[in-house]
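CHAIN AND CONFORMATION:
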Amino acid sequence: MIHTLDLTKAIDHYAKRLNDLSDLIPLLEKASGAKYVLLGESTHGTSEFYSIRSEISKWLIKEKGFQFIAVEGDWSSCYEVNRFIKGYDTPYTHASESLSAFNRWPEWMWANEEIASFVSWLQGFNNEKDTSSKIGFHGIDIYSLWESMSEIVSYLESIQSPDVEKAKKAFNCFEPYHNELQMYGVSASFYGKDCLDELVDLLKSLHQNRTLYEQDAEAALNLELNSLVVDNAENYYRVMVTDGNESWNIRDRHMVEAFYKVSSFYGKDAKGIIWEHNTHIGDARATDMAEDGMVNVGQLTREKYGEEQVYAVGLGTYKGTVIAADRWGDPHEEMVVPKAQSGSWEYYLHQAGSYDKFILFNQENIKFFNKTIGHRAIGVTYNHRYEHLGNYVPSRLSERYNAFIYIDQTNALRPLKNN
């Protein structure tokens, strides 16, 4: 049984007040000793989470030489932003214009004022750097099968590749499922009608002809990552209709694989930052996900690179407003985030004082924060009236993260008006 007084006393003793970025210097110094810093969020639609991650990332880039950011977004859309901030030839003149590349739901997750401000900063920072030192911005998610397939065909056509016809054949196979890729999963899983042969033939040929695509390093990376998305997304959509837990695992393994390829592009000594939801960056072994055989980015990166090379920071809130939708694909709206449930981590953090704070977990205090307690998680769909049914993940906070940033009252992010 959790004793409220004991836990609130521990939070009061070990938490530090957060008034501005300078208060986070102890966390930033600790995090910068790792090769990879993972920055979470308990919702996809909270302004403060985006702004805090931006400020942390700026500091790591300016002060500690971190070289790239990988986010829970589509590779193809983020690549347009990457080209913009690196000064490549693009049709965009402003940061907000580059975010128009996010045109697939939930576009507001990245096409918002907070990201536009950060992208503008990245462009300005890169303007002072030579080509090899420019900071990269990359998407490592799995959903954009159609967009990545289209990018592959366009690129191969532009260089008159011998693989164009194989790419078009694979693309045409997926074409009937353009707007409903989950129906591809139904067709593949239950009717044996899939595009696997066409896809394997294309990927095999791209590998055999890989020397044709190595003249432009960033273009070669773009082709490699789009190919990876198509390959893993085919498997993801095939599995999702029969096994939700395994499709989750396919997605998070893909994100780790994509992150590895991006990191390798920047060199063996590159240091990078990941922006994703807490459910991805917080170690799954410290939650009930492990009981269901699920893994995530936080767990997999710790296992792959070593715990000392990965520093995970969770972010959470007690109450406020958020951008989300009632159902998948519905228009977004500003919603109320009610006070956190009694007995949750956010509840105890509030009980210890209704102000912003952060905790660095260490050997001295880990025992106070390794109790299994509900931890708020809000996705792109949300209904606060049913929050108790699925918006709290039982978690051992000090095992799930290296540090936790708590914002007592938060506000909805600001979607761009043209999205």
The chain has two domains: 4-141+267-410, 145-251. The chain has a mean pLDDT of 94. Residues 217-240 form the longest helix (24 residues).
